[in-house]
Write a structure and sequence with these properties.
InterPro entries: ANL_N_sf, CapK_Type1_Caps_Biosynth
CATH class of the largest domain: Alpha Beta
Strand content: 15-25%
CATH architecture of the largest domain: 3-Layer(aba) Sandwich
Bound molecules: zinc ion
Largest sheet: 11 strands, mixed
Protein name: Phenylacetate--CoA ligase family protein
CATH topology of the largest domain: Rossmann fold
Helix content: 25-40%
Structural class: alpha/beta
């Protein structure tokens, strides 16, 4: 093992470098992350400008609607005009799929992907090897922020059934993971057996970093805390695929005696943002993604103001997604990070748009309002709140002590009920049901809130 590790690290790097130029791009990102603000702005401008020119010349959907001269004058982007480009929705991608594909697609090593589809139908989209290698190199950059370099041991607590390739793992998959010093644990619904297995695996493998679905590592941390199990302390934990609420971060950090780095992204656009070692918020990698946070009227949200996250990935020329509505809400920070990187900071990603509830008067209430009512209820193991109509809400609860039943928590439920009615109105009918388990979606993500009214 002593000899194998440096060897594996070396081979992994050579393989990455040769196959997809991932390592080369990683080196570029690694250097560019320290650009001075002015140089950084120029770099972002150049990348966006190249994408817009390409889209207006080679992608029918854009070429038919926008002239390149409208957007770029004397090599300078007209940002107010850029902000008039209609937002790209999942529905538009479905409807205009063919027109969104670049005409020079055959010259690119392209492939089709589908996104998880946490709400409704999944969407199909196209990426290519160049996009992919930028996305992978960005993952390496974020990893490096957490102290992990390629080849350092990593355990993945992964929830996506598709990524896990359950039953379809080939020898190549295993060898690839072994070479990269990755061990994958199926964390799709963490039952007792899986939790025990994960603890054993972490203690035995002693990873430098754990990369995990938020919900999975939180569940694991709660188990370890409750059962007083001894656990290896990794150098860092990176969470992804879900909202990391402050109480979750606290528990995970306390249990594993390490820092949590939150990462934000999606399958169709890659990893947009991640925390650096200063943990001031999530740095948006402007080298690869252009992010806007917008009010409902389409104007930019001010720092501390919740708005819709709209993203333009700068590295996908096969199917440019310009001003794509990813479906999440976020908040800009007005702080600048002490790390010195020029990237903007998202204070937080507060949840999905479909998590927003609406009352009979048409007022929108952010899902976090309801989530926080359940955070510190130590009798609740898991919950899901579904708004069926503006006046009907169903709450499903998994109890820590099922034998007690909901009738044992009348006072607590009354308190929650009052808080619900304070925003949804006295006339709102709220029912509570005790269930044995709440299943995650096929993507492995849990949904605490579902609004059929907003969807
Ligand atoms: Zn920073």
């Amino acid at each position: 093992m002593m000899v194998l590790n440096p060897l594996k690290k070396g081979l992994t790097r050579i393989r990455m470098y040769r196959q997809k130029d991932v390592f080369g791009k990683y080196k570029t990102l690694h250097q560019q992350q320290w650009l001075a603000p002015e140089e950084y702005e120029q770099y972002v401008h150049a990348k966006m400008s190249a994408l817009l020119k390409h889209a207006c010349k080679h992608v029918p959907f854009y070429r038919d609607n926008i002239g390149v001269n409208e957007l770029i004058h004397h090599n300078v982007i007209d940002w107010p005009r850029f902000m008039q480009i209609p937002l790209l929705t999942k529905e538009i991608i479905r409807e205009h799929y063919g027109q969104l594909i670049s005409e020079d697609i055959q010259e690119r090593k392209w492939f089709e992907e589908t996104s998880g589809g946490s709400t409704g139908e999944p969407i199909r989209f196209i990426q290519d090897e160049d996009t992919m290698s930028w996305m992978l190199s960005l993952k390496l950059l974020y990893d490096q922020w957490t102290g992990r370099v390629p080849g350092d041991r990593q355990i993945r607590l992964w929830g996506s059934m598709r990524d896990l390739l359950i039953g379809k793992e080939t020898m190549r998959t295993y060898v690839g993971r072994w070479m990269r010093n990755e061990r994958w644990i199926n964390a799709y619904r963490m039952d007792k057996e899986r939790v025990k297995m994960a603890v054993h695996s972490i203690n035995e493998y002693k990873p430098k970093q754990i990369l995990a679905y938020v919900e999975s590592i939180y569940e694991l941390a709660q188990y370890i805390e409750h059962h007083q199990v001894s656990i290896h302390h990794p150098h860092s934990i990176m969470t992804t695929a879900g909202v990391l609420f402050p109480h979750m971060r606290q528990t995970i950090e306390d249990v594993f005696q390490t820092k949590v780095y939150n990462r934000y992204g999606s399958r169709e656009v890659g990893d947009i943002a991640c925390e650096c070692e200063q943990h001031k918020g999530l740095h948006v990698s402007g080298l690869t993604h252009y992010v806007e946070v917008l009010r409902e009227d389409g104007t930019p949200a001010a720092p501390h103001e919740v708005g819709e996250i709209v993203v333009t990935p700068l590295c996908n020329f096969s199917m440019p997604l310009i001003r794509y509505r990813i479906g999440d809400l976020g908040v800009w920070s007005d702080e600048s990070c002490t790390c010195g990187r020029p990237f903007k900071l998202l204070k937080e990603v507060t949840g999905r748009i479909c998590d927003t509830f609406i009352n009979a008067n048409g007022t929108k209430i952010q899902g976090t309002y309801f989530s926080q009512l359940f955070f510190y209820q130590d009798w609740v193991k898991q919950y899901q709140i579904i708004q069926e109509t503006v006046e009907r809400v169903k709450v499903f609860v998994v109890l820590k002590h099922p034998e007690v039943g909901l009738s044992g928590y009348e006072a607590e439920i009354q308190m929650i009920d009052d808080q619900f009615k304070a925003v949804l109105g006295e006339g709102c009918d709220i029912t509570y049901e005790h269930v044995e388990a709440i299943s995650p979606q096929a993507s492995g993500k849990y949904r605490y809130l579902i609004s059929h009214v907003m969807a």
